[in-house]
Structure formats: C-alpha cells, structure tokens
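Lab notebook, design round three. We kept the backbone fixed and only want residue identities now. Task for the bench partner: fill in a sequence for the structure below.
Input structure tokens:
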C-alpha cells in the first residue's frame, strides 16, 4: 500500500566537476556592472568546507533581496551529514534541528541527519517568512555511520538561489526516463503518457506548469531504492542544460511489487546527484495481469504527482500509524484510520490509495493551500 518507504540518500557524490559543465552552473559575470542586465533569477554556487574536530561546520552565504535558497550537503566520507541550525543575518535562529528531532511533526529531512546527502530548502512554509538579504549561516554536522560526530570531514556545499515572488504560479521541467527495455513492454508507453497527462492536469490545478520530456536511460529496470543512488541519474541530469527533475520508470523498486514509487528525499536536490530522482514501478501499477486498466492509470498519475510532491518538500499529512503529521497548519491532525481516511483520504499526499476494491479507488486530487505553498517555495519551481 505504500507509495514510498522512508527516503534515505546513501552514496557519495561529487557535484563540483559535473556542475562545472552545466550551462546554468555558477554565477555568470560578463564584466558589465552598469545595471543594464536583468537581475538573475536563478544561480548556483559551490564550495567545500571541512568539519572541525567535533564534527561541526558552518557555511556562510549571501542572500539577495527576494531570494529563497536550497542548500545541498554532500559528505565525502560517505558518512552522515545534516543541518543543525539556520541563522539569519541578525543572528536569529530560523531553523533548529532540536525543535523537530523526536517530535511528531515533520518539516524537512535536512535536520534528521540520516544520510550522506542532505537537502534544505528555505523557506518551506508561509509562516517561515521571507529571507532577509544579507549573510546567512548554516550550522551543520558530520557523523559516522554509528551516529558519532566525525571530525575533519570534507563536505561539498551546493547552494541554489531563486529570485521569484510569485508563489501562486510557477513552472517545473521534468525528464521522464525509461530504463533499459521498459519502453518495449506492451502498453507501457501509452500508460505512462496517460499518467503524465493526469500528473500535469493535477499540478496545473496548483499553479505549477509541468513540462515533461521523454528519454531513455541505460539502467537495469530492477531498480534499487532511490536513496541508494544510481550514477547514471547524476550523469543524465548533469548533461542536461537546465535544472530538471528526473523521473525513472523501471520494473520494480527493490524487488517489491507493492511499492508504486519512491522519492529519494524530502525535499530532493534540484542539482544533479546520484539520488536526484523519483522512481516509478510500472509493474506495481499494472498488477498481476500486466495490463493497465483506466483505474490503474489514475493511480499511476497520482503516484507521479505524489512522489514528486515528496521531492518538492511535502510529507504525508499523516503517517499511517496515525501519530505523526506534517508541519502544515491546514492539514488535519487526525488520530485513527477511519477519521484520517475520511478527512484526508482524497489528499494527494495521503500515505496510500484509499480503495474499496482493486479497481475502485478514491481520487486523491486535493492539496491544501499550505501544501501548495511548500511546492511553490521549492527552489526548482520558478
Ligand atoms: Zn508518500
């Protein structure tokens, strides 16, 4: 029933060399500072920092008027990296991991320090405000795989900045890539394209203009969990001119016929990494007969929208133990299956499809304003 297992990025990546070959990487200067050029609306910077003996590091970065940011941390030792605090130019703490660790509401996986790549998008919600121009500081940590602080660890830091004050409209570009042989399976291309059309229709309701291009990727269709990473995901994205989302269609994910799809992290990185992907299983959707019914295509489109929703920063409004919730004020904090299915069962981000039979499932085509606000603040949505 799960669309996704807990996302956990795993493998070591190196961003800097790949970004150097990318059209939009880095801040472009042409020597003309007379002000005739339009202001940049998207820029990316990279640096490498080293944690101190106690496994702590700071990253300073300058935010310009009207910008929001995404900070992607990548630990060279393949240990664990995370965000402890985000500090504004006046020294105030905008985000503190201790406010979220161990609690019952989820805001961002950046503070959990679970894996070797960690992504923080800021702000996340309307109540997080706008970023004051000036020097911000991210305080991070490096841990070993037994969760002890691990000092003297290099961390690649990639920061993407988006200047955009239109938080009720935006656009995003996705690449949908078929794994080896998947395109040749009977009925799969037709089903995927119909699923994409529904995904686009859903996102349009929330002010996100989604464009999708199709590609092939030379990857075994027996996919690993997304958080384990696949080198070809990074390569494909780095070769692409623009910063895009990647959706990969394979047979099964981690051999599990009940996993429809999986996002690498909440949020996922907008820059190319080995975990920069949403994976979709076509076999889980087509079911035992291998053929797509109209109902299964509906679920497929909703899975595409749901997993990408995770990637853009949304958690489930309630987890299916009914005692953990997202940090969104206008999603109900229900406490049992019956009331949760009643109050949230039509929400796109509900943890599983609500069905009365294999072929009769409720449409999950709703988002609250608070949830839409998270999508619209993701730095990859302009
Ligand atoms: Zn999910």
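Proposed sequence:
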């Amino acid at each position: 029933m799960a669309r996704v297992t807990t996302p956990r990025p795993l493998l070591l990546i190196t961003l800097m060399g790949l970004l150097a070959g990318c059209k939009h990487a880095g801040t472009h200067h042409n020597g003309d500072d007379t002000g005739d050029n339009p202001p940049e609306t998207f820029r990316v910077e990279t640096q490498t920092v080293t944690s101190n003996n106690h496994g702590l590091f700071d990253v300073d970065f300058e935010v310009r008027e009207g910008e929001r940011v995404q900070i992607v941390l990548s630990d060279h030792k393949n240990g664990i990296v995370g965000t402890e605090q985000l500090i504004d130019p006046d020294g105030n703490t905008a985000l503190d991991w201790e406010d979220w660790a161990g609690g019952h509401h989820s805001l961002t996986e950046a503070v959990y320090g679970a894996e070797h790549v960690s992504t923080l998008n800021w702000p996340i919600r309307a109540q997080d405000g706008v970023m004051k121009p000036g020097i911000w500081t991210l305080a991070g940590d490096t841990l070993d795989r037994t969760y002890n602080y691990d000092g003297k660890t290099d961390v690649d830091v990639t920061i993407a900045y988006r200047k955009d004050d239109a938080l009720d409209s935006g656009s995003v570009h996705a690449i949908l890539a078929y794994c080896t042989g998947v395109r040749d399976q009977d009925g799969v291309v037709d089903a995927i394209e119909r699923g994409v059309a529904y995904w686009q229709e859903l996102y349009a309701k929330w002010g996100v203009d989604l464009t999708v291009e199709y590609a092939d990727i030379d990857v075994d269709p027996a996919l690993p969990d997304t958080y384990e990473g696949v080198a070809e995901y990074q390569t494909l994205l780095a070769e692409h001119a623009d910063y895009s989302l990647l959706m990969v269609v394979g047979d099964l994910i981690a051999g599990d016929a009940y996993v429809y799809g999986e996002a690498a992290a909440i949020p996922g990185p907008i820059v190319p990494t080995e975990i920069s992907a949403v994976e979709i299983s076509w076999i889980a959707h087509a079911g035992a007969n291998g053929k797509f019914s109209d109902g299964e295509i509906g679920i497929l489109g909703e899975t595409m929208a749901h997993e990408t929703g995770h990637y853009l920063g949304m958690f489930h409004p309630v987890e299916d133990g009914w005692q953990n919730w997202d940090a969104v004020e206008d999603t109900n904090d229900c406490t049992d299956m019956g009331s949760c299915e009643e109050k949230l069962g039509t929400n796109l981000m509900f943890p599983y499809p609500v069905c009365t039979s294999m072929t009769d499932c409720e449409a999950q085509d709703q988002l609250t304003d608070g949830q839409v606000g998270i999508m619209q603040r993701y730095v990859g949505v302009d």
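Keep this in mind before ordering anything: The longest helix spans residues 188-205.
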